[in-house]
Structure formats: structure tokens, C-alpha cells
Design a protein that fits this description.
The complex is a heterotrimer of chains A (489), B (414) and C (462).
Chain A lengths: L1 H5 L26 H13 L4 H27 L14 H12 L2 H11 L9 H22 L26 H33 L4 H10 L7 H34 L11 H27 L8 H31 L3 H12 L3 H13 L7 H5 L1 H28 L14 H24 L5 H25 L12
Helix pairs in contact in A: 2-17, 3-16, 4-6, 4-10, 4-15, 5-6, 5-9, 6-7, 6-10, 6-16, 7-8, 7-9, 9-10, 10-11, 10-15, 11-12, 12-13, 13-15
Chain B lengths: L13 H4 L1 H21 L8 H35 L6 H11 L2 H16 L17 H8 L5 H32 L2 H30 L11 H26 L9 H32 L2 H10 L4 H19 L3 H4 L2 H23 L8 H26 L12 H6 L6
Chain C lengths: L18 E8 L2 H13 L5 E4 L7 H5 L6 H27 L16 H24 L22 E6 L7 H9 L5 E6 L9 H26 L11 H4 L37 H4 L21 H8 L31 H19 L8 H10 L12 H5 L2 H10 L13 H18 L19 H4 L1
Antiparallel strand pairs in C: 1-3, 1-4, 2-3
Helix pairs in contact in C: 3-4, 10-11, 10-14, 13-14
The chains are: A mainly alpha (489), B mainly alpha (414), C mainly alpha (462).
Chain lengths: 489, 414, 462
């Protein structure tokens, strides 16, 4: 069993060529159900490679720094950040939107690609969902600590306050955000957890120690794999997917409302909802590529997370990157077409004003760098795609920076213009959030099933079945000559 | 061997072929009748100027009603090749035929260009700069964007791009009918990606030019997406209805099955939601911002009787069809799906009316009847174009390598 | 929990485990489907298959009915929608209304995002919890776990199970049926003999943890419900004691020692017409700058600044502070800014009689009741109010009289806070009328009415 997994030769296994009429295999190396189980479970069962320990050490140190900085922030106040008139919504909101955007890929892969019957999602959805949840955790920290008195953040919720007898303001987009991100975080969590139940049962049944068996047994809720259970389970999964798909779109839509319901030029534009969603998917997929490229190498999962999966993700990065570019262009055009002096000024100011550098970093990373993915070589070269995905991550952070800071620093009243400068704390806390993210992700790799084992097997079984049926139909169709072919010219 | 994949079933019913001139004639008569009602039967309450304005808006709305369907078909074809989809192969030819009516529809756009060059300010007020009062619109004319020359050049280039893309894809599809060569699929797969980019840009700008500039003061960056979403919903509804009709005429029995209807029903459902999402996003942002330069567009649509249409769109274009097509049982039910597809086409017409007509002024019964007749006429003309296209072409790409996949797949869930 | 988890000794007498049914193991899903169809056709309904992934067609092969979960989820979604709409309507439209950017209360387009999110939230959690409930999960003790072979059901083996409670169940015939379908192996499933209740130590531990978890909540509740004389804790010291100055405090930063800074000369506050409009001032501030400061009269463009300067700012001692008592020469209005009509005269009369007549007297001779009594009591120390009929006052421009009412004069206090500007102008109008009537001659009376003057007015004779 174990011999299958270690033999990986990228030249030999090219399943990226999906010829019409002959679907390329989704996973390579002549896998059986047994070998798939082995390959995935080994990640958690074998001792972790040294690299894991090094990364975990670094990540947890960074995370600890982040937590200490949060403590200092709460003690000292948000004045330690660079937020100041006129840019009060600076890095905290930039980082919030950045992380929430990244948190869109996972549920998109599990829900929307599921609805579109994109079976290649099965190898990557679990890790992507985990990443989603960790990204949303990182995102949620920022508004939490930005409210000033972080220990009163629960005032955001509509609970009956016995002292004040007042309710939150439901006409505020920031409250919609609380509901949207809250719903998204909790729904993604249950979606992720529910998806893991059968795989946790696999972990339980392979456990060598009673403690492991006890913990995984508890986590998988006594799953047996009963067909009666599977039937309800699949229905619930499908319903969750159907619910999560519009939910994913709604979350970044609501985040875009935070900006777009205001009257600030550069924020108040109707393309914001779909454009933010496209940007979120874009950044999310980039982060998935950033994480999965090393992960599949470290854990030798190349046969399950194949080049085809990465190729497909890169195509989505290309598509969403171009959509984002289209939205930038539409905004620029509309600023000119509207002949509205404030709109025109805002966009000229973005590109040529004091933050021109941020704008051009954004355009280069977000619009130009993914265009490299028109070339198949770029889409299937792991190093190249990893570099591009990093560029996209940088570009999407700068997109939020450009939107937030340029519009706020130059609004209607020139006397209140200013130039925003972050402080060291801004930088350290942004860096620190990566520590939290990586710590959680590394722990996930260590203890939980990184690939949806049962779903991969289901797709294996299904594609066997489908190719069988298709061969029958093809035999029946062959020899038929359409009548009108002759006079088609 | 008597196969169920009978070649007889993939050609247009003979009876339908003879319907071409009839549909065309009926369409023209209805259009003419509609024009008469809008222009001449208005009675004492309207001047000829406003009657002409109403008629031109009505023509544009009805033109957009079918044009968006054809554009939906073009997008559908492109996205099938981008995503390497297999399920749609057996219904793809119908979409291809809808898509290739674009050249005919380009002819239907000529009256609008002609009216511009005849220096009328309907439906586009900016066409006569002397009568423009708004300084913003004057500025738009001065920068050279809203001028009849540029407008026409842009319109022609959109049509050239769409026709080029449509016939590139249709041509390969027909060649594959002969040879079965996989290269034709590969070529289309290769170009589908860039074509989508071109499509996105051109449709966005066409929507800005043709529909949004009726109210030249107004602007909304999402407008192109709105028109696109509406067209996609109507396209799926049209394809469902055409496939149903063909099956009722004894065709395509083995090629289009309940799974295809289910999938098209899902897409229709999806685009009902997507349309609502886009329409709501635009409304919410302008309602919330409450800036006069932006809200007046809604104000025009919320007075003089148009408010009934505007409010009716919420249940008719969203709530009712949303609940109606929510269940998989409805989407897999022939009669149910047919009903909702017809519903979708009807509300699409209402939607286009909502976008265009309120700028023509207050409605009254007779011109509205004229507008309705015009809409029906345009639909008949459009169907006759479709029949012209479909007459000598097999209705299924028999040698497409992905056809077996389309014939065997199943919707396990949802 | 299955038998490997804990080896707690049970006090109960061990009894032989009961058989629950038969379980056949298969190599792949095709064999399983084939066998399942056979079992279904034999009439068994209490059957189940255990597979590592959802095998398609197994529901049909086993005769499993579709689930009602979608319907439950739909209901939950509608509940979520209604909850959200009701919540927003009640919280922002009924119970706690407040205006925000002119938006209406209750249900508006702004209610849609939260309604959508709660619809999804309710539906999503119902999907998961409904799935668990319909499947009877979590269930940690299951007879199938007693067989070690079954561990592969989540890996690479497929199991078919016929339960002993089936109404056609017969141990031998089921065994025979399952033997005929090419199973890898066939085993009888035994009841789980391990104790089903949790060990007491675990229960006790859990209870202790729960109790410990309640302690903070109990402390908070106790603190909220009781009073304490102790000073509060200052966790965030710099929030409780902020390094800032309050308005009336002194400072060493500025030379004048004041924390509150005077306005910069020339400041025009937005929305304060009373500092700019002649109607509120009685003079035209725009003309004030033309006054030569050499004349020992310091007047800024804005009255309030003049007052501030008069307070004696240390930082900028005003060189041209007016001599005490000397009224600044201001460009007073010569013309009434209100119309001289009957309505205004009546208003002026009413206000005059309320505010002015007490000292100045009803006729304006300075013989009001207060003045008379004060004079009789205080004799020389009382400064009697001026008669409004003095030549000096008659010659004053209307703006100056207005200014006097507004700012006071000598012992007379300011009436600006009691009388609105329009009322003050009406009083000026009335004073002018008084002055005119008290200093009139026969030429002022229209010719046709002169005859009525021969009879004195009845009230004057009494």
C-alpha cells in the first residue's frame, strides 16, 4: 500500500490535459480506496517532518507576539496605531477585509463548485475550508479590537440590555457585517465539521492508541457509514452547499456595503458588491495555492492534489483577476463618464496622487500578474504559480489599502486632507495575524484529515461508473451520420 | 440496429420550417400594430412628439428584450467551453442557433441608428444637444462620448465582435458535425477564455450605451451586470421552452432528458437570484446614499403609474418565481418547468420595460397596449430568425466528443 | 463508546451477549449493490449498508425512502426570515426608534441583509442538527463496533447488515442468503457487552468542570446585585484619568494661564447669524472696520470679540479698550428692519408693557412703578431710568435703541435673553410711536379728524 504514495514523477503524471470526450483522471498513481485512506491518514499518523516543527515554532511565536500586542493595544488604546484624522479606518479595516476576502475560497470550493459538479474540488476543499475558518478568525479579531473597548464588543449583538434598554442600529452596514461574518463563520464551521465527520471516523478506526480512538470517536459522533445515514448526510450537505453559496456572495457583498452605502467618492459605486466578491474569490484562491503548493510537497500528496487541481485553481485566479481588472476599468470609465468632479478627482488621485505607488502595486499584482496564467506553463509550474499567488495576496491587500486610504485621505473638504502613515504596531499586528493563521493551519494538518477522504473515494467510484456508461452510449452513437452535414457550408 | 438516437429526431420538424415566413409576417404585423397604437391611436391627451418618444422607447425596450436573450446564448456557449462542460452538449446546438440570430438582430438595431441620424431626440435625449438642459449631459456630449457618430461606431463594433465570436464558435461546431475532429473542440476551448473577456467588456458597454444613456444624467457601474443577469435568465427560459416544444413535436427525445431540464431549471433559478442580488445591490446603494444625482432614476420609475410596475417586479421577478422553482421536483417536472420558463420570459419583458419605458413619460392604456403588441411582435420576429437558423442544421452536435457525457450524466443531488 | 475506549470494571454479572443480526463484508460497491438488491427482493426491510463513501443507487437497492430534511430546513429558513424581520421591526421601529441619516424606521431595504443572513443561519444549523437528529447521532455505542473487521467500513470495505428485529428474520435463512452473494466474510453481530453508562469518575469530573465554569458568572451576578463602598478598580488607568484639561482649569502652557482658548480674531462661527446680521445686532458689522482705531475706540468686526477683548486678555492687551461707560460708536441702523404695521405695533406695545413699563412707565417718562418705589425707598442712590422723550433719545437711531435693549445701558440689564430680536424691534417701533405721540402737534392730526380732539379722551379726564 505504502509504495504507491512515494512514487511521484510530475513528468509522468500529467492529468492537466483534459481532452474532450476523455476526462483526465482527477487523482493519479492508480489509487485504490485503501491507498487513498493511507495517503491521507499518514499525514496525521506519522511523526511530523522537521519542517513542520520549524514552521510551527515560528508561527506560534508570531501568534504569541500578536496576542501580546492585542493585550498592549487593549491596555494602551488604539492610539498606538496610525489611525488618525482623516483616516480613521486604516489598517484594521484593510486587514479585516483582506482576511475575510481570503476566507471566501474554502466555502466557495465546497459549496459553489459542488453545485457546479466540479468534482476536482474534493481533493482541495477540506484544506481550503480550514483555511477559510482560520482566515475568518483572523478577520474577526480586527473589528473586535478596533471598537476601542474590546471587552464591550458584545454590545454589537441585539441582546436585551438591562441597564440601557436599547438595541443595535439595524440600518448600519457595520451591524450587517456582524450578522454576515457571524453567520458565515458559524456556517462555514459546521459545514467544515460536518464534512469531516466521516473522515474523523476513518481516523478513529485507524487509531492505534485508546486515547486517540476516544478523541476521534467523540469528534465523529459515532459515525458508522450507514447508508441510511449517508442519504440524510448527503442531503444535508447539498442543502448546506445550496445555502452556503449565496452566503459566500452575501458576506463580501455586505463588507462592500460598509464602504458603498456611504457617499464618499471611490466608495459609493454600485459595482462594489460583485466586484468585492470577485476580489474575495481571487484572493482566497491565491491563498489556497500559496498553502497547498508547499503542503502537497511536504506531505507527499501530489497524487491527490495533482497539477490539474492547481491548474484549475489558477484558471479561476485568472478569471477573477480579470474580473477585478474589469471592475477597476468600469469604475474609471464611470468616473469619467459621469462627469462628476468628485468622482473624477478621486480616481485620478488614486492613480497619480500621493498614494500612486499603492495603486500601481495593486494593478501590477492584481491585474497584470494573473495574466501570466494565460500560459499553461505558468499554470502548471508549482514555483511559478506560488510566486504569482504571493503577488496576488500582496495585490489584494493593497487593493483594500487603496480603497480605504485614498478615499478617506482626500474627501470633499480639502482643509481636512491628510496623509496616513502606519506605525510599527500596525505592521507588527498585521504580521502577527499571519502567525495565528499559520499556527491554526499547521495544527489542522497535524490533527485533522487534510483531504476529504470519503469524497475523493466517492468521485473515484462515480467516474468509473460514468466512463462505463459513456462507452456504451458512444458505441451506440457511432456510425451515425447526421443528414444535413453535406450542405452545411 | 434501431437505435434510440435516431437522426430523424435531430432535425427541425417539417411543419416548423414552413412557419418561418408566417412568424416573420405575424411579427411585423404586430410590430406595425404596436407602432400604430403608440403613435396614432393616442387620442387627444398626447402630442405627436411625446407619442413618437413613447414609440421609440417601446421599440428599444422590445429590442433589448430579445437582444439580451441572444447575448445570453453567446455567453452560455463561451462558458461551456471555458469550463469544459459536458452536460450541455446535447442542448448546446439550440443555444448556438439562438446565438447566431445576432446578425439579424443587428438589422433590427438599424432603425435606432437611423433615428439618431435623423436628428430625433428619442429615445436618446442627448442626440439633440440644443435641447439638452442638463449641464452634465452637455459635458458628456462635449467630451465626445454621447454623440451619434461615436455611438454608432461603438454599436457597430459590438455587433462585429459578437457576430465574429458567434460564428467562430458556430463554424467550429458545424465543421465538427462533418469530421468529428477533436481539434474543433480544442480550438473553441482555446479561444473561449479571451472571448469571455471581450464579451464582458462589450456587453457592459452596450448596456451603458443603449439603455443607461437614455437617462444620460444617470450612471451606475453595475448596470452592465444587471442587463447581463436579466438576459441570462431569459436565455435559459427560452432554451427550456424551445427544447420542450421540440420534444412535444417528437424531436430530441433521446437527447434532451430530465437531467438537462433540471440543470437548465437550476440555472434559471440561479439567475433569478443573481438578478435579484444585482438589482437589490443597485437599489440599496442608491437608496442609502440618497444623492439626488443618483436617486432620480428611481424617482422617475416610482411615479406616473410606473411605480406599480416597479413594485410588481419584486414579487414577479423575484419572490414568486424564486419560491416556484425552489424545489427540485418542480425543476424536474415538465409542465412545472415550462410554466416557470414562460413566466421568466414574461417578467424579462417587464424588466426591460421597467428599464426603458418610464423615461418616455406617463403611461396610458393605448400606447401600453401598443408596447405589448410590439413586444410580442419582436418575439415572433426573433423566433422566425431562430427558425431560419435552425432549418438546415441538425439540432444536436452528433459528433461532439462530449456528447456521450451529456447523454449519461445524472443529477444525483439537489 | 465502544469497547476499546475504557476498561472500567462493571459490577454487573457478565451475561452472554445477544446476537443483533448478520453482517457481510464486500470488496467493492458493485458486489454490495448486487447483494443489497437480493436482500431487498427477499423482503427484508431492517437492513443497512455501511460504506466508506455514499454509494449511489444504494438507497434504491435497499429501498430507503427519501428524507424530509429539505422540508424541515425550508421551515427553519422561513422562521429565520420572520425572526429577522420581526426583530428589526420591533427593535428599530417600535421599541427603540432613533433617526439615522433620515432613514425610515421599521422594515426598509436596509433590513434585507440581516434578514438574509438569519434565514441562512437558521437553515444551515437546522440542516446539520436535523441531519444528526434524523440519523440518531451522536451514538457512541453501536453493536457493529464490536467486530474489529468493521474498522474497514470507513476505509475500503463495504458491509451489508440485516437486523434481527426484521419481521422476516430467521438466523439461518439470512446466513444462507448472505453466503450466496460472494461476500468476503460473514459475521454475526453481537450486542455491545460493555457497560452503557458512563463511569462515575467521568461524570463527577464533568460536573466539577461545569460547576467551576459557573463561578465567574456567579461572581459577576453577585457584584451586579450588591453594593460596595470600595472604590472601583482602575484597570485602564489612562482611560479613567486622562491627561487632559477641562474648560475652567488653568494651565502653564499659555501665557494667560487659561486652558480654554479665545477664538482667533476674525472667526466667524457657522450658523450664528446673531453675530453677523444687522437684524440681530442693531448695527451693520460690515461697516465697523471703517472706524479709525486711533479714536481710542476699539471695535472688532464681531461684537463678541470686542467683549472678549474687554475681559482683559493677558496675551493681547487691547490697546484701544473703550473708556468705561463710553458706548462704542457703532454704525447703527437708521431704518427699522421690520415693517411698521399695526400687528408689530401691537406686539411692541404688549412686550413694552411687560418688560419696559415697570421702570420706564407706560408712557415712557421713566415713571414706572418700580422706579417710583425705588426712588422713594433708596432716594439718592437710585439712578432713575431715562425718559424716552428726552431729546437725546429721540435723536438716537432705531438701531441704538435696539442695541440698548439687547445689551443694556448703565443700570439697565440686557434683555436679549428674554425678548426675541423681532420683539425688540417691535418695542423700538412702539417707543418711536410713543415718542411721536407725546411730542405731536395739531398738524400731525389728519384734518378730518381734528374735530374729535375738542372732546378730551374720556380716560384722560378721569
Amino acid at each position: 500500500m505504502a509504495s504507491i504514495t512515494s512514487s511521484y514523477n510530475p513528468r509522468e503524471i500529467d492529468n492537466t490535459e483534459d481532452m474532450p470526450g476523455r476526462r483526465a483522471p482527477l487523482i493519479t498513481g492508480n489509487q485504490t480506496y485503501t491507498s487513498v485512506t493511507d495517503m491521507v491518514c499518514r499525514v496525521a499518523e506519522d511523526p511530523q517532518p522537521r519542517l513542520w516543527w520549524i514552521l510551527f515554532g515560528m508561527a506560534s511565536l508570531t501568534a504569541s507576539m500578536f496576542l501580546m500586542l492585542i493585550g498592549f493595544l487593549i491596555y494602551k488604546g488604539v492610539g498606538i496605531w496610525g489611525n488618525s484624522s482623516p483616516v480613521f479606518w486604516a489598517w484594521p479595516i484593510v486587514n479585516f477585509v483582506f482576511w475575510v476576502g481570503i476566507g471566501h475560497a474554502g466555502t466557495l470550493i465546497s459549496a459553489i463548485l459542488f453545485l457546479f459538479r466540479q468534482n476536482w474540488r474534493t481533493s482541495i476543499n477540506r484544506a481550503a475550508e480550514a483555511m477559510t475558518i482560520f482566515a475568518v478568525i483572523c478577520a474577526g479579531i480586527y473589528p473586535g479590537i478596533h471598537v476601542g473597548r474590546a471587552w464591550l464588543a458584545f454590545w454589537l449583538l441585539p441582546y436585551p440590555s438591562l441597564n440601557l434598554w436599547m438595541w443595535p442600529q439595524f440600518r448600519s452596514p457595520l451591524l450587517w457585517d456582524v450578522f454576515a461574518v457571524g453567520t458565515y463563520a458559524s456556517t462555514s464551521l459546521v459545514f467544515w465539521y460536518m464534512g469531516m465527520i466521516p473522515d474523523l471516523a476513518t481516523y478513529r478506526d485507524r487509531s492505534k492508541t485508546p486515547l486517540r480512538r476516544f478523541i476521534y470517536g467523540l469528534l465523529c459522533l459515532g459515525w458508522t457509514g450507514s447508508s441510511r445515514h449517508w442519504l440524510v448526510y448527503e442531503k444535508a450537505y447539498t442543502l448546506l452547499a445550496a445555502l452556503a453559496a449565496p452566503l459566500v456572495l452575501s458576506v463580501h457583498t455586505v463588507v462592500s456595503f460598509d464602504f458603498a452605502v456611504s457617499q464618499l467618492p471611490g466608495w459609493h459605486t454600485t459595482i462594489f458588491p460583485p466586484y468585492f466578491v470577485a476580489g474575495a474569490i481571487f484572493s482566497g484562491f491565491a491563498m489556497v495555492v500559496t498553502l497547498l503548493v508547499p503542503m502537497r510537497a511536504i506531505y507527499k500528496l501530489e497524487n491527490l492534489i495533482t497539477l490539474r487541481h492547481l491548474d484549475n485553481m489558477n484558471k479561476i485566479i485568472l478569471a477573477t483577476g480579470s474580473l477585478v481588472g474589469l471592475a477597476y476599468g468600469t469604475e474609471f470609465f464611470m468616473a469619467w463618464y459621469s462627469q462628476n468632479q468628485y468622482e473624477s478627482f478621486t480616481f485620478i488621485n488614486r492613480a497619480f496622487g500621493p498614494y500612486w505607488w499603492a495603486y500601481w502595486i495593486m494593478v501590477t499584482c492584481n491585474v497584470i500578474s494573473p495574466q501570466l496564467f494565460w500560459f499553461k506553463w505558468m499554470r502548471t509550474n508549482v514555483v511559478a504559480m506560488w510566486v504569482v499567488s504571493i503577488f496576488v495576496n500582496i495585490g489584494m491587500w493593497f487593493e483594500r489599502f487603496v480603497i480605504t486610504v485614498t478615499s478617506l485621505s482626500r474627501d470633499f473638504l480639502p482643509s481636512s486632507w491628510g496623509y496616513y502613515r502606519p506605525t510599527l504596531f500596525d505592521g507588527l499586528m498585521f504580521f502577527g495575524s499571519f502567525g495565528v493563521f499559520m499556527t491554526l493551519f499547521l495544527l489542522f494538518c497535524r490533527y485533522l484529515p487534510t483531504i476529504a477522504i470519503s469524497e475523493v473515494k466517492g468521485v473515484m467510484s462515480l467516474s468509473d461508473h460514468a466512463s462505463h456508461l459513456e462507452a456504451e452510449v458512444l458505441a451506440e452513437l457511432q456510425g451515425k451520420e447526421p443528414k444535413h452535414v453535406g450542405h452545411a457550408h | 440496429m434501431s437505435s434510440k438516437y435516431d437522426l430523424e429526431t435531430i432535425e427541425l420538424p417539417a411543419k416548423w420550417k414552413s412557419l418561418k415566413p408566417i412568424f416573420f409576417a405575424v411579427g411585423l404585423i404586430l410590430l406595425a400594430g404596436g407602432a400604430f397604437l403608440s403613435l396614432f391611436a393616442r387620442g387627444a391627451e398626447g402630442s405627436t412628439d411625446s407619442a413618437f418618444k413613447f414609440f421609440m422607447h417601446s421599440y428599444l425596450a422590445n429590442f433589448m428584450f430579445v437582444m439580451t436573450i441572444a447575448l445570453g446564448a453567446l455567453f452560455f456557449i463561451l462558458i461551456q467551453f471555458v469550463s469544459r462542460a459536458g452536460w450541455s452538449t446535447s442542448i448546446r446546438r439550440i443555444a448556438e442557433l439562438i446565438m447566431t440570430t445576432i446578425p439579424f438582430l443587428a438589422l433590427m438595431f438599424i432603425p435606432i441608428i437611423a433615428i439618431l441620424f435623423a436628428n430625433y431626440n428619442a429615445p436618446y435625449e442627448w442626440n439633440v444637444p440644443a435641447e439638452v438642459h442638463s449641464s452634465v449631459v452637455k459635458a458628456k456630449i462635449d467630451i465626445g462620448y454621447l454623440t451619434k457618430e461615436w455611438f454608432s461606431i461603438r454599436a457597430v463594433s459590438y455587433f462585429v465582435l459578437w457576430i465574429a465570436m458567434a460564428f467562430y464558435f458556430f463554424g467550429h461546431s458545424r465543421k465538427q458535425d462533418e469530421t468529428g475532429d477533436i481539434e474543433h473542440s480544442l480550438a473553441r476551448q482555446k479561444w473561449a477564455g479571451p472571448c469571455i473577456m471581450v464579451f464582458a467588456l462589450s456587453v457592459s458597454f452596450a448596456a451603458f450605451d443603449w439603455v443607461m444613456s437614455i437617462d444620460a444624467d444617470w450612471f451606475s457601474t453595475i448596470f452592465g451586470v444587471y442587463v447581463f443577469a436579466a438576459g441570462m435568465m431569459a436565455f435559459f427560459a427560452t432554451t427550456i421552452l424551445i427544447s420542450m416544444a421540440l420534444q412535444n413535436a417528437g424531436k430530441l427525445q433521446a437527447f434532451v432528458n430530465v437531467e438537462h431540464f433540471h440543470d437548465m431549471g437550476k440555472f434559471m433559478f440561479g439567475f433569478i437570484m443573481f438578478w435579484s442580488y444585482i438589482a437589490f445591490s443597485q437599489l440599496l446603494l442608491y437608496w442609502y446614499g440618497n444623492i439626488p444625482e443618483e436617486t432620480f432614476w428611481y424617482q422617475v420609475r416610482l411615479k406616473d403609474g410606473w411605480q406599480y410596475l416597479a413594485y410588481a417586479l419584486i414579487p414577479l421577478h423575484f419572490a414568486i418565481p424564486f419560491l416556484g422553482t425552489l424545489s427540485r421536483h418542480v425543476r424536474r417536472h415538465r409542465l412545472g418547468l415550462t410554466f416557470w420558463a414562460a413566466w421568466a420570459i414574461a417578467v424579462h419583458w417587464l424588466d426591460m420595460t421597467f428599464l426603458v419605458m418610464p423615461n418616455a413619460g406617463a403611461p396610458s392604456l393605448v400606447p401600453i397596449l401598443g408596447h405589448l403588441l410590439g413586444g410580442l411582435g419582436m418575439l415572433f420576429v426573433f423566433l422566425s430568425f431562430f427558425l431560419v437558423r435552425a432549418s438546415n442544421v441538425p439540432l444536436v452536435p452528433m459528433k461532439d466528443p462530449r456528447l456521450p457525457e451529456a447523454l449519461t450524466y445524472a443529477n444525483p443531488l439537489l | 463508546m465502544n469497547n476499546n475506549d475504557h476498561n472500567v470494571k462493571s459490577n454487573k454479572e457478565p451475561r452472554p451477549p445477544k446476537a443483533c443480526g448478520w453482517m457481510a463484508e464486500f470488496e467493492n460497491e458493485h458486489d454490495l449493490l448486487h447483494a443489497a438488491e437480493k436482500v431487498r427482493d427477499a423482503g427484508y426491510t431492517k437492513t443497512d449498508a455501511f460504506t466508506p463513501f455514499p454509494v449511489h443507487g444504494i438507497d434504491h437497492a435497499l429501498g430507503i425512502k427519501p428524507t424530509i430534511l429539505p422540508f424541515i430546513v425550508l421551515c427553519a429558513g422561513l422562521t429565520g426570515l420572520c425572526t429577522a424581520l420581526l426583530m428589526q421591526w420591533w427593535m428599530n421601529g417600535v421599541d427603540y426608534k432613533y433617526i439615522i441619516s433620515g432613514k425610515p424606521f421599521g422594515i426598509t431595504p436596509a433590513s434585507i441583509p440581516v434578514s438574509f443572513e438569519l434565514t441562512i443561519l437558521f437553515s444551515a444549523f437546522t440542516s446539520v442538527l436535523g441531519m444528526l437528529a434524523l440519523n440518531g447521532l451522536p451514538r457512541f455505542s453501536n453493536p457493529v463496533f464490536t467486530n474489529a473487521k468493521f474498522d474497514r467500513a470507513t476505509n475500503d470495505r463495504f458491509f451489508l447488515y440485516v437486523d434481527a428485529t426484521d419481521k422476516y428474520y430467521n438466523r439461518e435463512s439470512v446466513k444462507e442468503l448472505l453466503s450466496s452473494v460472494h461476500a468476503n466474510s460473514l459475521d454475526e453481530v453481537m450486542e455491545d457487552s460493555t457497560p452503557s453508562e458512563l463511569p462515575r469518575s467521568i461524570l463527577l469530573g464533568a460536573l466539577l468542570i461545569v460547576l467551576a465554569g459557573l463561578i465567574p458568572a456567579a461572581i459577576v451576578l453577585n457584584m451586579r446585585a450588591s453594593f460596595s463602598d470600595l472604590p472601583r478598580w482602575h484597570v485602564f488607568f489612562d482611560m479613567d484619568f486622562q491627561p487632559k484639561k477641562k474648560p475652567q482649569q488653568t494651565t502653564t502652557i499659555f501665557k494667560d494661564g487659561r486652558t480654554m482658548r479665545p477664538q482667533v480674531p476674525g472667526t466667524i462661527s457657522r450658523g450664528q447669524l446673531d453675530q453677523q446680521d444687522p437684524f440681530y445686532l442693531g448695527y451693520d458689522p460690515m461697516k465697523v472696520t471703517s472706524i479709525d482705531t486711533e479714536k481710542q475706540i476699539y471695535v472688532s468686526t464681531v461684537d463678541s470679540v470686542a467683549n472678549l477683548s474687554a475681559l482683559g486678555s493677558v496675551a493681547q492687551p487691547p490697546a484701544g479698550t473703550p473708556a468705561a461707560g463710553a458706548a462704542p460708536v457703532l454704525p447703527f441702523l437708521e431704518k427699522l428692519p421690520i415693517e411698521a404695521n399695526e400687528e408689530n405695533i401691537k406686539l411692541g406695545k404688549a412686550k413694552y408693557e411687560i418688560y419696559c413699563s415697570a421702570c420706564h412707565g407706560y408712557s415712557g417718562y421713566g415713571d414706572g412703578l418700580v422706579s417710583k418705589r425705588a426712588a422713594s425707598l433708596a432716594q439718592d442712590t437710585w439712578t432713575p431710568p431715562s425718559s424716552l422723550h428726552l431729546d437725546r433719545i429721540q435723536k438716537q437711531p432705531v438701531g441704538q435703541i435696539f442695541h440698548t435693549i439687547s445689551k443694556g445701558q448703565g443700570k439697565m440689564a440686557s434683555y436679549a435673553s428674554s425678548i426675541t430680536p423681532k420683539e425688540r424691534w417691535s418695542i423700538v417701533l412702539y417707543v418711536r410711536a410713543l415718542q411721536r405721540s407725546r411730542n405731536a402737534n395739531i398738524d400731525d392730526v389728519p384734518v378730518d379728524q381734528r374735530g374729535s380732539l375738542t372732546d378730551p379722551v374720556p380716560s384722560q379726564t378721569k
